Amino acid sequence: MKKVLTLLALFFCLNMVSGQDKIEITADDYENTTVEMADTMRSNGKIYVVVAVVMVVFVGLIVYMIQTERKITRIEKEVFKEKDNS
Amino acid sequence: MKKTWWKILAVAILIYAILGALLFDAPRLNILNETIRNLHFHVTMWFGMIILLTASMVLAIRYLRTGNQKFDLYSVELANVGVLFSILGLVTGAVWANYAWGEPWSGDPKQNGAAVCLLIYLAYFVLRNSINDEQQRGRIGGIYNIFAFAALIPLLFILPRMTDSLHPGNGGNPGFNAYDMDSRLRIVFYPAVIGWTLLGLWMASLRIRMRKVQKQLED
Amino acid sequence: MIFTLIQKEFILEWRQRYAINGIILYLASTVFICYMSFNLKLGLVDPIIWNALFWVIILFTAVNAVAKSFLQESYGRTLYYFSLVKPESFIISKTIYYSGLLLLMSILGFLFYAFVMGNPVQDKFMYLLVLCLGSIGLSSTLTLTSAIASKASNSSSLMAVLSFPIIIPLLLVLIKASKNAMDGLDRSVYTDQLLTLVAINALIMGFSYLLFPYLWRS
Fold this sequence. Notes:
Shape of chain C: globular
Number of domains of chain B: 1
Helix content of chain C: over 70%
Number of domains of chain C: 1
Radius of gyration of chain C: 18 Å
Structural class of chain B: mainly alpha
Distance between the termini of chain C: 23 Å
Oligomer: heterotrimer
Strand content of chain C: under 5%
Order of helices and strands of chain C: HHHHHHHH
Largest sheet of chain B: none
């Protein structure tokens, strides 16, 4: 325990090194229309096409994961049952 | 780890995070423009990697304490997923940097740190593969894992603060201000970190089960 | 106990003088190769390059010098130590001994390097201090990695693979601090870098002290 505490203390010593200033993001940044964003995609609804595509890819990956999981579960059952019988 | 609820939770959180990242209002910032949304995909990889690698180190410590082979297996597979995350983080970072900073590799301290981190964990796998005895492999691999993590602490948390960085959160780079996240970004960002980490855990758990089956078949 | 072990390292080293002579020769020829391949004297070599090159030379020498610390120990002798001493005192003695050796090497290296490549260092005392901290840090990292590598097959190439990425953070701070000393900046400007160096050294030593007993058991 003592050793762990010593190491933690060391870690905090390292942390003493000064950090730098950050710039806050303010509410103005959300209204600042001088900065170009993909506003047209939003106004004509095309952003939803992108969202749909990303979602399809993501769901596809998850379905693949689930199937792999199922397969492993089945194999686990087979292998460990065999072990018990022998 | 075989329970399903946390996997469903992970998927739900990730769906929320992806929708939120793409659709919620984002701050309008110069240079960054719409790419600020990358925050929820690129930076989360980085956070997830640190969480997974920390878990890997903790499990390595437990392995050294108890000598239970199980912990070693967990530790390796977590490191494996951590490496996957770090590669994804590096690649997405390079793509983003290409458009935000003008070149894919701009010598940013955090970028270099990520590369070194990758090197360390690749060395870890090389070390493990060059030891044949299983007990030896676990023990020595575990020792290197802990030692490497200790060496990473200054690299990841201290050095970037001492030098100017293009990344937000540190350094006073005049051409690119250091922005701090605000609450509207955070409500997507933190869930996204949790979601990606849980997904990483899920992947690791699949690999762990696969390895257990493999071992059973060998015996 | 630690003192006896250091003494033993020293006697062993003295018996195998060819090894240390080899390292010195390695250092000298690397410096000379750098000099020849740049084919330039100071003034044409950028101070940043001068500094970085020096640290790279020291790094390679250190890897070669410390690599043998565990690789040279035969299996039987290790067993013998195992029955006699505590692992903690063993790693401490090794670290102290190799820090000393490396310090000697880096000072020799610095003298020769400055002799052929010219000496732009302005704050010599601080540069020496950084050199000192660097030798301690390098030797403590490399001692543990050499202990790890000695357990695996193809250990000599593994040694470099394992140690280089771990050393990078240390090396970055070293180069930065020594560059400041070289430019003769006011000492207060980079005291935090020196403190970071001390902290990194302490961290590495602490971890090798904690981890070595586990390595020893196998």
